[in-house]
Batch of 3 targets.
Target 1
Amino acid sequence: MTVTLITGIAGGLARLVGAEQARRGHEVVGVDYRPLPAPLDYPAQVYQANYNKTRIEDVFRKHRPELVLHLGRVGNLKERMGKRFDLNVIGSGKIMELALKYRAKRVLVLSTFHIYGAHPHNHTPIYEDEPLRAGAAFPQIADAIQLDNMATMWVWRHPEVQTVVLRPCNVVGPTIKNAMSRFLRQSTAPVMIGFDPMVQFIHERDMVAAILAAANGEAVGVFNVAGRSPIPWREALALAGVRQLPVPATLAFAYLGLSRLVSDALPPYLVNFQKYPCVIADEKIREAFDWEPWVSEVETIRSTVQA
Amino acid sequence: MKGIFHHLGSFLHEPKVERAIDSLPIKTNALGYDPWGFGPRESKLYYSLAYRLYQYFRPEIHGIENVPAGRVLIVPNHSGQLPLDGLVIAVACLLGAEPPRLVRAMVERWFPTLPVINQAFARSGAVLGDPINCRNLLAAENAILVFPEGAKGSGKTWDRRYKLERFGRGFMRLALQAGAPIVPVAVIGGEESIISIYNVEPLAKALNTPYFPISPLLPLLGPAAYLPLPVKFHVYFGEPMRFDGPFDDEDHVIEEKVQIVKSRVQEMVDEGLARRESVF
């Protein structure tokens, strides 16, 4: 039995990972800065604590987790930039330090493929050791890049704790409530006139399997995680039953800039992901952890909106 | 939008193109796309449209049997302001090569930023001109179309017509790395299709385009001066050239090999020009 600390337990993905880890007979300890939206339906100790505050150390001291799954990156731009920096950069640094201090065996950090950035000069596919372009155009993503950089350095700086960094593509599914899943569940959505890039989606079930395969494996390093195969953005929207409203990209940027004041349907930096490709390669994780995605492209999208 | 696409498709429908695309051994996913966005369904429409333009230029194709099956780099001279030379080569390879070849054109970094064009290019098999794209496509036994002169070649002014600009070295390194043959190609007619007598660089810079050509027909025809003239194209595919040696060798070693290809293309261009009886 492994004591597993899972951050971001109030989120859909962490909740599923916790369920699977508990089903396999491991002790699950959950942490989140947000309250749980609904009680967990499996045995777990849950704490509400900011990742950058002292309370988080109490959790480590009490439970001494052997496995730390840091899934609690705040991607939601509804949170102010300062708060995201505190949670994602300072908080993640603290969690990694505590993992070291309390001798966790293995740490898994959930990053994102957004940090590569969707760019007209992107080739296909993008491998793990390539530059992270997103920050140049959109400083709002700086915290995610810094979190990833920090975790990546940690892999080599502290060999005494095995560190794995995952950079998944768009994680969607019936229980996921991130920006992309919400976007697919809209009845109407803007699309950029004259652009239809290839986009990758991974089903929550496959993502849970990828996290647990990486958590229980031996290899360390940075790994992209993609779904079955990339599909055109508009095919994805058609599969989701979203009515498409073609708009010029400049108008979309302006609209999303303004709409941030009232909603969080899509962060403006994601507009580029509707214009340019950002297709990632994931042969490395498949080989290192003997994992592969099972849910088809069509089922991945359909199950997200049928929820 | 889908309706317009459908009607346009039935209007342009070209059975030869459809048969050739259906015969391609390209691996696509359940929805019918490859990772770069090539989609046989939509490419049939774009290639049918390209075929109409191809017919407009009444091209004479020579030596298409030199395009082999499997991985290969097709290396032509570049001209004509718009990539019409690429279009003629692509249609010739699809309809004339045995087996039919889908050329994966390596496009300028400018094209992916252009609305509609980027989509048409991607669905038809073109990809961003990038070493990793090229390497992966060669590994999957594709035919790569690369213009080593780049935008400098297509943007040539009239006084520089049919004189090859400097060749980049990237294509040679990729050919060596993949062990792929190079088919040299000469395109005659491109330089006369859209004529440029001057490149307004400041305007190109302001509009973020690789060049801004001035046509001599501008005072006479206005914007219509930028429509291609009905010149006759002649395309010569040369015998495949093979090179050996490390792909990461010093620049001057690679450059020597590049010069061999460039000289061969220039030679073929000169021969083609000498053989041409009329521009139209």
Target 2
Amino acid sequence: MRVGLLVTCLVDVMRPEIGFSTIKLLEAAGCEVVAPESQTCCGQPAYSAGNRDAARALAEKFLDEFEGFDYIVIPSGSCGGMVKTHYEDALAGHPHLLQRFAAVKPRVYELTDFLSTVVKLKNLPTAQADSFKGKITYHDSCCGLRELGVQQQPRELLTQRPGVELTEMKDARACCGFGGSFAVKYGDISAAIVDEKCENIHNTHADAVVLGDLGCMLNIEGRLRRTGDHTTRVLHVAQVLAGDA
Amino acid sequence: MQIQSMHFKARAGQKLADLRLQQNLKKLSTKFVTGRASAIAELDDFEATRDAAADRRTRAIENLDVWLSTFEKEATRRGATVLYAETAEDASRLVVEIARKHEVKKVIKSKSMVSEEMALNSALEAAGITPIETDLGEYILQINDNEPPSHIIAPVIHKDKEEIAELFSRIHKKPLLTDIPEMTREAREVLRTHFLSADMGVTGGNFIIAESGSVAVVTNEGNEGMCTVMPPKVHVVVTGIEKVLPTLSDLATIMRLLPRSATGQSISNYFSLLTGPRAQGEQDGPEHMYFVLVDAGRTSLVGTEFEEMLRCIRCGACMNHCPVYQKIGGHSYGWVYPGPMGSVLTPSYVGVENAMDLPQASTLCGECHVVCPVKIPLPDLLRKLREKQFKKGLRPVFEYVAFGVWAFVAKRPKLYRITTQIATRLMRAMGNEKGLIATLPMAGGWTAHRDMPVPAGKTFRELNKH
């Protein structure tokens, strides 16, 4: 099974190791993984800002790069949500592109959804010797949860990782306040929202908060560090599952 | 109501710094969010009920003209007078004219957000008529120098008991109370004299029913009954034209969802279905009944990509569940309707250029869509408003330039590769010994409150040998 990996622009620039953990997981599931060289961004920043032309151009670029794969896997709920739930609108008015997209759409998956529902991964790859062990709490990212229905999938997979104990925080489904450019344009409101998230994380006494989106990751980690918490780790679900964290 | 939405950012900043308000806003999640969750669990098939409610609202909106003319015919047949107002000002003028015609001196009102759009109280006062708000929350706001409501169903959610106790003591000139039932009793004593001496009652209308010409009014205090059945000889209903439902069966479906979504109640304490003035031989009801049906921008949404917004049944679930509203409350939004529904309605009714922040000040987390009883895709509508701003050239120049450059680069993989390699290294160099960036150019909103963790150093695409 040939899987095209949309690594996402934030993983590419900020946390490449998450891309490699993703590949490790997909290969453990028996997939042949290809990350097309020419990929850049799914277009969500443009789409959310109301810049339809740029969003459509990048959606078309995605089609060119990924339509040949059996499946397309994305280690991000928000980029996955963009492709799966918004490309139709972004491509509206272009019947030929919509037709091509209709053939691709059912093959697009967020990483944990793919591992859990498509390949039904039972044996996680061998963990690195010093990999993370301890208490974690899982933050549901908005688009993954509400656009793609990603909720049980990461939790079920995480229970397979020995030494990792999941404890639920209050309001795990509540937004962390990131919202893309929202966090820059309305930094003070965003900070008030993420403060509540940080408080809920702290109340679990977890060693790490685990999540599936880079935006939430940078936001939560950035706020924890700014407020003096240098110990609670902020990890992507792929890193914990792959035993790379 | 005068639009103040252009001051959103400054107001939101003040609200964030108001610790008392922050404490008061916590009631939203403990009371409304938890309440709704348990109330919807009572329904065997909540999702199917939502589908049905959305369908029924859609059916009403798609043939708005037909249902309104049916309503007019049925209401008129039962002795009521149906008037239409194109603007909020027209609506106020009509109500003042009705009051003058019947030589009204005092008007008692039950809660109506449309009357806020109309600024009805100031129009009545200007005509020498005294309006008295009889919903407890609205009464509190009225005696507090006509403060605007901060929530569509819980207008004083931003206040605590102590603040209200002080206000009562000051305005009623009575000793300071601490017990809520005692405070309520004091308000009732004041309101009772008004109930008995008013000449006209004004109510909102949660829905108007085409097949029967009735109005449905939902309250928890029963004050709508006092405004319509008790002494007033005139009852005026003011509501939006989109509030029409074709049949009573539609109303039954919607009522399964409205109180549950709003306050987490299976059914509100009071529910009135009022049809026509007092007929011969009847014991109660007003001598005259009027409907003032307000457009004020609503028809401009019909047939557009924002039409779905007209399904709204004003339950407030979207704001109760909104992470932004939960932090800043309703006053920051600067017009009648706050939260996600307000962020769609305000630019739609008062002009996109007058409410630039509202569609932007959302994380688009999607919870409002999830909880909306009539399935309005609020995040999509907010995004469409952003698109409208962008197309109209209303965004700051910086945004067009930044997006232009970004899109140019993102469409060119080789250039993108080089750019990201440079950016990664630059950001890495900016980090401190803990791997954190404390200030970032052009992202001051981020770094004022958060560090930016530094990138790894090389991009995935540089490292990937697959």
Target 3
Amino acid sequence: MTPIIKKSIVGLAMVAISGSASAAGELNLYNWGNYTNPELITKFEKAHDVKVTVTDYDSNDSALAKVKAGGHGFDMVVPSANYMKIWIDEGLLLETRPDQMSNFKNVAKDFNNPVWDPGRRYSVPWQWGTVGMIVDTSVYKGDINTSALFLDPPDELKGKINVPPEMNDVISAAIMYLGGEPCTTDKDLLRKVRDKLVEAKKHWLSMDYGMIEKFAGRDVAASLYWNGAGFRAREKNADVRFGYPQEGFALWMDSVAVLKDAKNADNAKLFQNFVMMPENAALISAFARYANGIDGSDKYMPADMKNAPEIIIDPKLSGAGKFLLACSPKATEMYTAIWTELQK
Amino acid sequence: MSSSIASSKKLFSIYKLPGFNFIAITCFVMLYAPIMILVGYSFNEGSSLALWEGFSLRWYYSAWQNEAVKDATLLSLIIALQASLYSTVLATMAALGTTRTRAFRGQTAIYAMINQPLMVPEIVTAVALLIVFATIKQATGYQGLSYLVIAHTAFCVPFAYLPIRARLEDMDRSLEIAAADLYATPWRCFRRVTLPLLLPGILAGAMLAFVISLDDVVITEFVKSAGQDTLPTFMLGQIRRVITPEMNAIASALLAVSVLMVSLIFLINRKKT
């Protein structure tokens, strides 16, 4: 074989490989607003010669409604864990088998077989976070890794506690504190949950959002809240710490999946594999400020996030984290009744 | 006439009712305080919406530098311009058809139908349009901007129609009748008499339609295709993450445009009387 022919065969082979890996063209990502790092998109566009268009949605419901109606023109969507089952059961997602993709080995073992997408046959981790206790340690010096801080509050915290107006997060935390499983319909346990919450509420200052400012101004000393906010509150008030209740705390996760009627399914699959690369997952985190579920991405994280205890769960406590899924209508009805009573 | 008004004023004046000042002031505070606070914090130096850290224009600058904001603003303006143009033309024709014709059966029904977008909850229209457009999108594969322009035109029609119709009803019919008496053709009469007199109403209607289109969230959110975020839907999307005063800055700018347009409508309408 002459060198020229050899070269051209190698060249052809390379074209063939890159051709199968990168269909030059378009990709339409339908994602939560303010959630997609433009750098990540530029990097993907350059790497695969694809024009990416990002369109925003503001809730799981509106994304679901639009995609179900059809004719939407999107290729990928990023549903939350508690909605993923609906997307899969409605047959809206393409089974892309991320578990067989080359970068799947990077997915952290806590997230490579989630209950809401068993075996990761559809979706790839985007961002995840936790619901725990933000505490001002200048007010309270004890153990912060417990839901007792808002359910059986110590004297130092009484009257300085906030609870967010989020039914599922609050009731699930109380159920887990009393030894139950989220979405339980056990009436005796739920009666205890109700009594505990009603009793504890006397010691709460507020049921509100906007805690970053409240902790910065030292108006509130403890709150059940989200880890990302805990991180930002600590930036403004150095005494703030984030605790993971050992009785059980809620996890949430958004994962990126490909739509069944995607026009650019090949590019979408490339994108799924792309975000499982640690350095790319780190770009997502650097922008949205939450953890990403990809092992090895911490190396590429911004310095302030690398060792942040709000982002990296203490391994001793990580077992207590549970995903909140969509509960049965019966459970939801009972929780709503408790919630209504609590709001009085 | 004027004496009777004066005497009735003595008998009954709403300003003298007990609690008038209190209720009026409460209403104004409730209406404007949140907006004032929003505008105030758009000038915040820090990244907080509740702690004042000094005056700065940095969020206006950062919004100005934000490519996503620029794209969304441009798209909002393109849609609003087209939608206000088309809806004003339609509204003018509708207004002429309901005022410059002999009264016909079903006139009230037609009047109600034209104003339907004012009564029907926006979410109902949005879901209906979502379903219809989804079918068309699937059948044709066309994903362009026309869906948004059509949707906006549809709900802008009554907003353009009302001021135009009001103007037509106020106008002195004798001028048009005189023109007709002097053998002006209906078209010539319209072009030389009706249209010039109607112009302030048309302008007011167009501006109102423009503002309404610019501000729309719900219908746009449901109808938009890939890459078609307008400024309001872009802003709505931002609530997922922490909201910075950049949103306040964008909202304040949008507010300024709306206030400007409404003031212009007011000035135009005042001039003609």
